[in-house]
């Protein structure tokens, strides 16, 4: 990774890295600001808060399910740099819609504001769907073969850092500041995209299939018949379904159970990004570069265990006085605050240890000319599973199940993920 840092000085890489970094930062800044604002300022009912988060999560994921196949086709058949510029231009319009939603809700029209914000979330999902395949597919065209791995690592590291910073900033800036900032960052990202070098189509021209259902079905059918890929994609999809449920229940849990303010919620969410990064480093060290699901079953079982620990700690939490929220200083002063944050870090770390090796199967089990389609198929299945998870979370919440109780369902899902990963390990190792 250190050797790859020199790529940041080169025009063939820096504009792409900057564009990707700003896009990830802005996406997470808006979504986190929206969720925290809705949780703490618009709704005053735990069920409504959970349902809103579930709806927003499902809407954000839906475009990946519908358009991933088309996005992959377009990336392979057109100039990737030109698509980037189109996508970044669209981002400015999307953020105008989202900023308007934030300000309208802030002005006392929550119904209209929420509608505008959710519309922006939907379009951001479309934005990410079409940009996602390009950020990896463009690297072999711009970089020398021995630089591709380092460039990929920098893109991944930049994405995690952007998510972390976006989450933290969302917890500290006022909603008016967030509305202005997302527009400024979108404009800077548009400017950076102007400098991405051309990346024209390579290989024969493709006949595009614009039907999202038949294109996705064909993509999945030609990928999932390989047993190892089938198991890897199923395990990854189940993992991200778990992640979707955690994302949905976490902000209302922080507000209503831990009775902490939005800055504490933002910081706690940021812990997940740090934990996944730590887990990635740890599992790579343990496996010593070997692609294997050897530790995945144990990792996700440990994740389930830490989820149970987190739930039990929440149940014994001493809430703030009625009508008040703990700020960071007050939160940290509570006896169980450090164990709670450590349990969150452990959940994310073991989750990273589980899922990182599984992604490696998607790029090493197939021929190089099939890698993009394999990743696209995984995205379709993942997004479908996460959408179903969001719908299930809404149903469970409507049935009266509290977020702290829903954590036990998450722990049970971890056991199913471990079973799938164990089957993959036996089939491949």
Automatic annotation (TrEMBL):
> Which parts pass through the membrane?
21-43, 55-74, 86-105, 111-132, 153-172, 178-196, 229-251, 263-283, 295-318, 338-360, 380-400, 406-424
Q: How does it sit in the membrane?
A: Multi-pass membrane protein
Looking up Pfam families in the UniProt record yields: MFS_1
Q: List locations, semicolon-separated.
A: Cell membrane
This chain's protein is named MFS transporter
Its chief place of residence is: membrane
What InterPro entries does the entry give? Answer: MFS, MFS_trans_sf
Query: From which domain of life does this come?
Result: Bacteria
Which keywords accompany this UniProt record?
Cell membrane, Membrane, Transmembrane, Transmembrane helix, Transport
Q: Does the keyword Cell membrane apply?
A: yes
Q: Species name for this entry? A: Sphingomonas kyungheensis
């Amino acid at each position: 990774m250190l050797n790859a840092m020199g790529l940041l000085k080169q025009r063939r890489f820096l504009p792409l890295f900057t564009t990707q970094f700003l896009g990830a930062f802005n996406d997470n800044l808006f979504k986190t600001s929206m969720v925290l604002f809705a949780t703490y300022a618009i709704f005053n009912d735990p069920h409504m808060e959970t349902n809103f988060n579930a709806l927003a999560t499902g809407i954000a994921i839906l475009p990946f399910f519908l358009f991933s196949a088309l996005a992959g086709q377009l990336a392979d058949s057109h100039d990737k740099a030109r698509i980037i510029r189109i996508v970044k231009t669209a981002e400015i319009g999307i953020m105008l819609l989202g900023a308007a939603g934030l300000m309208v809700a802030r002005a006392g029209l929550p119904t209209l504001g929420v509608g505008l914000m959710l519309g922006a979330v939907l379009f951001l999902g479309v934005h990410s769907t079409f940009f996602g395949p390009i950020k990896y597919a463009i690297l072999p065209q711009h970089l020398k073969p021995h630089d591709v791995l380092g460039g990929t690592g920098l893109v991944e590291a930049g994405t995690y850092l952007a998510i972390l910073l976006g989450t933290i900033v969302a917890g500290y800036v006022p909603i008016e500041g967030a509305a202005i900032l997302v527009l400024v960052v979108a404009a800077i990202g548009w400017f950076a995209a102007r400098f991405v070098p051309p990346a024209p189509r390579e290989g024969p021209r493709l006949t595009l299939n614009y039907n999202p259902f038949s294109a996705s079905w064909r993509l999945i059918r030609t990928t999932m018949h390989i047993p190892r890929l089938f198991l890897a994609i199923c395990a990854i999809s189940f993992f991200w379904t778990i992640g979707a449920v955690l994302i949905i229940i976490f902000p209302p849990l922080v507000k209503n159970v831990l009775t902490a303010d939005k800055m504490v919620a933002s910081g706690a969410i940021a812990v997940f990004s740090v934990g996944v990064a730590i887990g990635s480093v740890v599992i790579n060290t343990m496996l010593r570069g070997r692609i294997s699901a050897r530790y995945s079953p144990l990792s996700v079982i440990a994740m389930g265990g830490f989820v149970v620990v987190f739930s039990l700690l929440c149940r014994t939490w001493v809430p703030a006085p009625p009508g008040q929220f703990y700020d960071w200083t007050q939160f940290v002063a509570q006896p169980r605050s450090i164990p709670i944050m450590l349990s969150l870090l452990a959940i994310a770390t073991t989750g990273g240890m589980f899922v990182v090796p599984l992604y490696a199967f998607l790029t090493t089990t197939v021929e190089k000319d099939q890698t993009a389609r394999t990743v696209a198929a995984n995205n379709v299945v993942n997004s479908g599973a996460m959408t179903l998870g969001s719908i299930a979370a809404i149903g469970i919440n409507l049935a009266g199940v509290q977020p702290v109780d829903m954590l036990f369902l998450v722990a049970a899902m971890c056991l199913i993920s471990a079973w799938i990963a164990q089957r993959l390990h036996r089939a491949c190792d």
